[in-house]
Amino acid sequence: xxxxxxHITGSVFxxxxxxxxxxxxxxxxxxxxxRQQVGWVGAVLAxxxxxxxxxxxxxxxxxxxxxxxxxxxxxxxxYFIGDVYVLFIPNWLLLCLWLxxxxxxxxxxxxxxxxxxxxxxxxxSPNLEAxxxxxxxxxxxxxxxxxxxxxxxxxxxxxxxxxxxINQANNIAARERWHTILAEPVPTEAVLLSNxxxxxxxxxxxxxxxxxxxxxxxxxx
Length: 221
Hints:
The protein folds into two domains: 16-166, no CATH class; 173-219, no CATH class. Helix content is 68%, strand content 3%.
């Protein structure tokens, strides 16, 4: 039973928490992962998103997202596990929220500036003033919708420019190693061990999807 609760609570990984070992190299890792996600442009837009929340008085949302980001980041900086990059996903979700808000804030500012420049004349006639106001609103909506739509190109650019990094079609090293092992005269009911779940999955795929290697067992700690 103690082992069960250790597994449920995650205390079996407590040795990976090393606050004293966290340093600038971990911050550099976090920054590198951030740039891989959204690049410099995305980082700047996320900063604009934080500024937009502050300017519009959305302190509640700013504190909620900001503190959440800091807590997730702080934990990841002191958690020394091999695939810690997966635990940064909550940070990137918050980052994308700020990024979107930053782009909307930028779009709003550009649209308002354009409308002021084009419809900023002074009219003494109430009719002309009302007409100018309606025209300004329509111009604003057109520009804002157009620029917001253009913002959708950003994730498409990220996909295109980073496709080679995220494409795992040719990542078959673990699969080939298991093929090599299974080609050997493995005894019946042999137990094959791996130290990593990512390495054991190709073997399980051989067994449960392809029906190969069914005479042996495959486990990972």
